[in-house]
Amino acid sequence: MTTMATAVPARAPQTWYKILYVQVLIAIVLGAIVGWLWPSVATNDWVKALGDGFIKLIKMVIAPIIFCTVASGIAHIQDAKKVGRVGIKALVYFEIASSFALVLGLVMGNLVQIGHGLAVKPDAAAVANYVKQAEASKTVDFFLNIIPDTVVGALARGDVLQVLLFAILFGFSLMALGERGGRLRGMIDDVAHAVFGVIAIIMKAAPIGAFGAMAFTVGKFGPAALGNLIGLVVLFYATAAIFVIVVLGLIARIVGFSIFKFIIYIKDELLIVLGTSSSESALPQLMEKLERLGCSKPVVGLVVPTGYSFNLDGTNIYMTLATLFIAQALGVDLTFGQQLTILLVAMLTSKGASGVTGAGFITLAATLSVVNPALVPGMAIVFSIDKFMSEVRALTNITGNGIAAVFVSWWEGELDDATLHARLKQPTVSNGIDTRTSRR
Questions:
Q1: Residue 117 — left, alpha, or beta (φ > 0 → left; ψ -120 to 50 → alpha)?
Q2: 386: CB partners within 8 A, 6+ apart
Q3: pTM of the full predicted structure?
Q4: Residues near 144 by Cβ (< 8 Å), separated by ≥ 6?
Q5: How confident is the model at residue 259 (pLDDT cuts 50, 70, 90)?
Q6: d(Cα 391, Cα 269) in Å, to the nearest integer?
Q7: How far apart are CA 99 and CA 347, in angstroms?
Q8: Which end of the chain is more exposed for a tag (fewer CB within 10 A), N or C?
Q9: How many other CB atoms sit within 10 Å of the CB of residue 125?
Q10: Alpha helices in 335-377 (DSSP H)
Q11: Distance between CA 389 and CA 380 in Å, rounded?
Q12: What pLDDT shows up at residue 120?
């Protein structure tokens, strides 16, 4: 592994209102106020377009970033077996972390049975579209869809797993070319730097996007939408916090750093996710920051994009917790065997759920239909508050994927400890991506 400079470059202190996370936080608060006081204005199509437009701008560059990062990272590896080794380690980590998330959701749902006594009359029509999408999805189709019809089509659609597959194959091809592929590897590295420069420009619009997304959410769904279901929202938030602090905190401690310092390090990305309800909106920035943190570039390129489909800790907590809540609200007693089935089914249905808002609701429909079809109409109970829960799903997912990349880098012996502690001790304050950073 190439050793990075451990000293964090000194920068002149920024004026507080020019700091990105401050701007995003102010935008979120203003958006919530506008949505609460002027819902008719907040639900205007143009306000909604502010959030949707920012997410589209970010998704526009996700495919080229993943392709360049993964292909270049693999091409620079001398040992081809290393890629497979990293992939296996990542999958092992994903399954263990996902299991902890699922079990935690199940335990909290049994300990705090807030669904009992909730008088509800579920409307199946409200969730019919999600149920139809869940029924149409099959595990075999998910794996077949990883293979793109065409490379251009995968890049055009921005399908993360399809682009990842082609990038891996292309990286191996460059590796086999040896010296002849040197010029092409250099060109891909330059393209990656240029795309990160584009992201730095896009990130200037992050406060606007966060304002639009939060204003529309509060204006359309709340705060009246919470009603008697506030208990489920609070329980989900608390369970996600326990998972991050205890489970991910323990993993971070094994590596040798504090989960709280890591959260502070990625605060910009977390606030963007909070405002947009999509973990994909911060994927490129997260990859760049993890590399600057001392993680191996090939590991980051493989673990983070894959984790967006295979390591969705927040979605896993949501599925087990929401399934128990719906069963309790409908008066359906689930046996120990059925609860065990929830774990097994949710482990499969959660795979392929992207960071896009609503994906967790579709996977919930798939889980309920397998565990007990009588529970499916009960999805309407949590439909009105799903948007408020999607923020925490996305926050937990992106934090889990960040920790996964650090842990796998450490496991692989390619984590620069000196850089890690230097960065966490003094997080670099910047508005977006630092394209000047040396990339391995």
A1: left
A2: 358, 360, 361
A3: 0.73
A4: none
A5: very high
A6: 13
A7: 8
A8: N
A9: 9
A10: 336-349, 359-371
A11: 14
A12: 52
Q: How far is CA 376 from CA 104, 226, 350, in A?
A: 22, 21, 17
DSSP code, position 372: -
Tell me, what amino acid is at 310?
Answer: F
Residue pLDDT, tens place only, 88-124: 898 899 989 989 999 999 999 888 877 666 545 555 5
**Which positions ≥6 away from 322 have C-beta within 8 Å?**
232, 236, 364, 382
Contact (Cβ atoms closer than 8 angstroms) between residue 309 and residue 349: no
Assigned token pair, 263: 């959260």
Secondary structure (3-state) at 414:
coil
d(CA 334, CA 229): 21
Structure tokens at 348: 């499969």
**3-class secondary-structure state, position 113:** coil
The structure tokens 């992939």 sit at 87
Please give the Cα distance from 201 to 179 (Å, whole number).
34
What is the DSSP annotation of 290-340? HHHTT--HHHHHHHHHHHHHH--HHHHHHHHHHHHHHHHHHTPPPPHHHHH
Taking the alpha carbons at both ends of the chain, their separation in whole angstroms is 9
Within 76-181, where are the H helices?
81-111, 128-136, 139-144, 151-157, 160-177
Cα 430 to Cα 102, 117, 262, 266, 325, distances in angstroms: 36, 50, 16, 11, 42
- Identify the residue whose tokens are 């249905």: 349
Token code pair at residue 211: 């304002």
Q: Would you give the DSSP letter of residue 248?
A: I
